[in-house]
């Protein structure tokens, strides 16, 4: 199987599955291969379970509350909240769980 435009909607596996690619012949298991320009030539990464990202869109609303410079503790700083959110997402996306294999 070659999965075209996997990083753009409506590309990837969904249209292929809807068109029956897993049915003729019946597919019991699949192994994916994806290029990674950050790996040294001759190496690959592997881990059990899911590994590759998805292109779903997520909409997040962070709601702050206005305040006064004389009493900042009474407000909710949405900019600071957004900064902490971005930092948390970046930390959770770090690839420490991947194991690099040299072939």
Computed over alpha carbons, the radius of gyration is 21 Å
Number of strands: 2
Strands across the major sheet, in which order? 1-2
Summing up helix and strand content along with how strands pair, one would put the structural category as alpha+beta
Helices and strands, in N-to-C order?
HEHE
Average pLDDT works out at: 79
Cα separation of the termini: 24 Å
Determine the fraction of residues in helical runs and give it as a percent range. Answer: 10-25%
User: What is the helix tally?
Assistant: 2
Low-confidence stretches: 98-103
Q: How does the overall form come out from the CA principal axes? A: elongated
Major sheet characteristics: 2 strands, antiparallel
Portion in beta strands:
5-15%
Summarize the model shown:
By secondary structure, this protein is of the alpha+beta class.
Features:
103 residues, two-stranded antiparallel ribbon, 2 helices, alpha+beta, 20% helix
How does this model look, in words?
The chain is α+β, with helices and mostly antiparallel strands and 103 residues long. The protein has two helices and two strands; from the N terminus they run αβαβ. The chain has a two-stranded antiparallel sheet. The chain is elongated.
């Amino acid at each position: 199987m070659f999965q075209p435009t996997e990083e753009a909607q409506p590309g990837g596996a969904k249209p292929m599955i809807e068109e029956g690619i897993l049915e003729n012949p019946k597919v019991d298991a699949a192994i994916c291969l994806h290029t990674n320009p950050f790996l040294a030539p001759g190496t690959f990464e592997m881990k059990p379970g899911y590994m590759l990202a998805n292109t779903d869109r997520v909409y997040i609303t962070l709601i702050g509350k206005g305040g006064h410079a004389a009493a900042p503790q009474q407000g909710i700083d949405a900019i600071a909240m957004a900064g902490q959110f971005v930092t948390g997402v970046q930390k959770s996306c770090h690839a420490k769980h991947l194991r690099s294999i040299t072939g």
